[in-house]
Target: Methyltransferase domain-containing protein
Amino acid sequence: MSYLLVREDREHLLEPGDTLESDLGILEVPEDVEPGDTLETHIGERFVVREPRGPDLFDHLERTGAPMMPRDIGLVLGQLGLAAGDRVLDAGTGTGILAAYLGRLGVEVTTYERDADFAEVARDNMATAGVADRVEVRTGDVTDDLDALSDFDGLTLDTGDAATVVSRAPDLLAPGAPLAVYSPFVESSRDCVEAARDAGLVDVETVETIQRGMDFDERGSRPSTRGVGHTGYLTFARTPLL
Model:
């Protein structure tokens, strides 16, 4: 488990026993460090220790590509309604941000990553996030194992062939269980919607995620004109109860 060392102008993600060397001096992180501790560098610069939250992990975990944004993850978590003890099948691990969020909720995650190097980084990231005991990162293509997977409480996908997995959702999920697919391209979302309908899934919908910041100044208040805040498309569905 790693911790954040925080002060007003910066923060660092370190593990117990690590050494921080910076322009503020050298700091040895004790093995018994705990959130709330105050640590000092050898020249007296102080850092406060706290446990990292999901957005901190997004900022500090080692990346192997573009991870899912926290706002998209929030929609996934809100729509799926997962809780501690649930089992989730995930594919397209990447950096592992979504898997880490799920693991921090107490969800048991089995996640597939095709690239062996990416999978190894994701395992290290799960250890950093403190969820390695709840998130199993498997190297391989989930489509190769579909016949051996079943009875999950949720399904999350961020892969180019997500529609293939969606078509097997009734075999993979418990009755009434939800799924979420993140797609950077609307064509992939359409494929997933068609696969979900053909498979007899219910509550099928796709949303585009757009977020705009607000600007406040002496002239007034308005949405920011810096970009439209588009990230991607999220498709949701659920297996029927009967």
